[in-house]
Specification:
The structure is a homodimer.
Chain A (H helix, E strand, L loop, with lengths): L2 E5 L8 E5 L9 E11 L1 H7 L16 E9 L11 E4 L14 E5 L3 E3 L6 H5 L2 H7 L1 H4 L8 E4 L5 H13 L2 E6 L5 H6 L4 E4 L5 H8 L5 E6 L6 H6 L1 E9 L12 H7 L2 E4 L3 H4 L2 H16 L7 E6 L3 H10 L5 E5 L4
Parallel strand pairs in A: 8-9, 8-11, 9-10, 11-12, 12-13, 14-15
Antiparallel strand pairs in A: 1-2, 3-4, 3-6, 3-15, 4-5, 5-7
Chain lengths: ~325, ~325
C-alpha cells in the first residue's frame, strides 16, 4: 500500500503524517509515478500552516514536485509510457493532488519528461523554479542589458531567476539578509549582491544602475519592503510579486508608482503552466537551455524520505541556498 | 501686458494671483496662444496645494489646458500658423508652463488643432480627459464585452472613460458617492451606476458581471478602497490607477492580487502624450471618434476669467458632473 505524507490539521512540521493509503484507481488523464525524489517548496510550508492561497481539506495531500518513473498511465494518456523518467510540474491544486509519497497519482498534463542527463533529484528540483522565473521572460520581456533585482535570491526560484537573467544577458542583482550567502550568490551568477541588513537596498540599486534603478523586480516577500523596491525601480519598471513571505501588510506606494509609471504584477505559476500555449513555449525554452548546460538546479541539502519533518524544519530555518530535496536514494 | 494667474505660495484657492507679466520671447519650438477658454483639472488643485507629484517653484504658473487662437509661432514650428484654432495637450510640466492666462506660451509639441465643430470651451475640455482615458485602450486593450469599472465617474476623465468604453462596445460600470449623480451618469452612458454609499461596490460589481468581476478598473482615488477594487476585479484583471485623490494610505491587497493574478498599473498621461508614436495613435483615434460624434465633452459649469478662485472652489466641492471651464466669453 502506498505511503503518503499528509496532514490532518494545520500546524508546524510535526503535523506531517506518514499514512498508508490504498492506491486509488487511475483516471483517464492521470499517471501513477513511482517517486524517487521530492522537491520541497515554501508554498508547501505555507499550505501546511494554513497560510497559503488555498485552504487544505483534511486529510490533505501535500507537495508540488516529485520525480521518478511512470508506473501506470490512464486510458487517455498518450504522451507518457510506463518506464518513462518524469517529474511533476506544479500545474495542479494541492487540494486535489500531492507529491509527498512513494507512489502518487498526478494529472498527465502536469508531467514533464526528465532530461536525460538529469538525476531524479535534479528533475524534482527544476520545474517550480524555472517555470516561475520564466515569468520574467514571458511577462517581463527580460532581455540583454536589463537590471533585474531579485529578492530572497538564495531561494531556489531566486537562483533560477539569476540563471535565466544570465542566459539572456541581463544583470541579476541579488538581495539577501544573511552575510554568509553573499559569496555563494556571487558564485551562483549574481552580478552584484546586496546584504540588506548591512546596506541600503535603494542606494545600492541606484549605485549599481548608474542612478536609473532596476527595470525588473522579482520579489516573493512583499510586506513593508515593497516601498523600497518601488523606490529602487526604474521609470516604467515592472515589479513582479510572486509570493507572500512577509506576514506584514504591504503599502501600495502610490506616489512612487505614479511618478515612475510602475506596473505591479502579482503572478502565480498557473498563468504559465495552466496555459497550454505558454507552457509549451516555456518548456521549449527551458529544456533547450538545460540541454545547453546554461540552467542547472542548485541543491541545498538532501534528506531521506523518513525525515520530511526535518526537511520542513530546514526550509523554515532559511539557512539553505537552493533547493531542499527528499530522496529515496538517501538513507 | 499678459495677465497670468499664478501662485506665490501653496494653499487654498485664495493663493491664486492675477499677475501682469511681460510677454516672454518665444522659443523656436513654442507658440503663443491667445486664450479663449481654460479647462480646470484636479491636478491643478493638488499642485496649488503642494500635494501633486511635482512641487511648484514660486511664482508658479498653473494649468494644463487652454484653447484659443495661435497668435505667434516660434522659428522652428511648422505644424501651426498664426490664426489657427488650437488647444493644449497636457504634455508639459507645470513647473515650466501654465495655461491660466489671457495669453500664454506653450510648447508646440503639446498643441492640437481644435476640431472644426468644437468651440474653444469644448476644446479646452477635451484633451486631458480623452488622452487619459485612452490608457484603457493603449495599455488595457479595452474591447467589446469588457466590464470596465470606473470610479469617481462624474469627473471629466470618468465621463470620458464611459464614452470610450461605449465607443468600443465595452460595459462601463460607474461609481459615485453622491446619490444625485446616479441618474446623470446613466444618461451619460454608464451601463450601471453604483452608489457606493448606499450599496456594496464588490457585491454590485459581482452581480453586474455574473460573478466574474471587472476586467478593467480605472481609478483616480486609490486609498483604502483599493482593496475593494481588487476584490471586485476579475481573474487577470488590469487595475489602472491614475490619480491620488485619497489622502489616506492604500494597502497592497496581496492575496487578492496573487489569487487572481492582478496587474496594478500606475499611469500618468505622459506615457501617451510624451511618446510621439503613442500620441499620434491616440490623436488619430480620438479625433476620428470626435468627428463621428461618439465623443463629446460634458461641461459642468463655465466661470468668467475673473472668477478662477470660484472655479477652484467649485472643483473642490465635488458637485460637478463633467468639466469646469473658465471662459473669456463668459461675463
Amino acid at each position: 500500500m502506498p505511503t503518503l505524507i499528509r496532514f490532518h490539521r494545520t500546524g508546524g512540521p510535526e503535523v506531517l503524517s506518514y499514512d498508508q493509503v490504498a492506491a486509488p484507481a487511475l483516471g483517464a488523464d492521470e499517471v501513477r509515478l513511482k517517486v524517487e525524489a521530492i522537491g520541497i517548496n515554501r508554498a508547501e510550508v505555507m499550505f501546511r500552516e494554513g497560510k497559503y492561497i488555498e485552504e487544505p481539506s483534511f486529510p490533505s495531500p501535500l507537495g508540488y514536485e516529485a520525480a521518478g518513473v511512470i508506473e501506470e498511465v490512464g486510458a487517455g494518456v498518450a504522451e507518457f509510457r510506463v518506464g518513462d523518467r518524469a517529474a511533476s510540474i506544479p500545474a495542479f491544486s494541492m487540494k486535489k493532488y500531492g507529491t509527498y509519497g512513494d507512489s502518487v497519482v498526478l494529472p498527465a498534463s502536469a508531467m514533464i519528461k526528465t532530461p536525460d542527463h538529469f538525476s531524479s533529484e535534479e528533475s524534482s528540483a527544476s520545474w517550480m523554479q524555472y517555470f516561475t522565473a520564466f515569468l520574467l521572460i514571458e511577462f517581463g520581456g527580460m532581455k540583454r542589458g536589463d537590471h533585474v533585482l531579485i529578492t530572497a535570491a538564495a531561494s531556489s526560484v531566486g537562483l533560477a531567476a539569476i540563471q535565466l537573467a544570465n542566459a539572456v544577458g541581463a544583470h541579476p542583482i541579488a538581495t539577501t539578509r544573511k552575510k554568509d550567502k553573499v559569496q555563494p550568490l556571487l558564485e551562483a551568477g549574481a552580478s552584484a549582491v546586496i546584504d540588506v541588513k548591512e546596506s541600503s537596498l535603494v542606494d545600492e540599486v541606484k549605485r549599481l544602475t548608474s542612478g536609473q534603478g532596476a527595470n525588473l523586480i522579482f520579489d516573493p516577500v512583499v510586506g513593508p519592503q515593497l516601498a523600497a523596491l518601488c523606490e529602487a525601480a526604474a521609470e516604467s519598471a515592472n515589479v513582479f510579486v510572486y509570493g507572500a513571505l512577509s506576514p506584514e501588510p504591504a503599502p501600495f506606494p502610490l506616489f512612487q508608482a505614479l511618478g515612475k509609471n510602475l506596473t505591479l504584477r502579482a503572478y502565480q505559476l498557473g498563468l504559465i503552466v495552466r496555459n497550454p500555449e505558454k507552457l509549451e513555449r516555456a518548456k521549449a525554452w527551458i529544456l533547450s537551455r538545460i540541454a545547453a548546460g546554461e540552467l542547472k538546479p542548485k541543491i541545498a541539502k538532501v534528506f531521506p524520505f523518513d525525515q520530511m519533518v526535518e526537511a520542513h524544519r530546514f526550509m523554515e530555518s532559511n539557512e539553505q541556498i537552493g533547493k531542499i530535496i527528499v530522496s529515496f536514494s538517501k538513507k
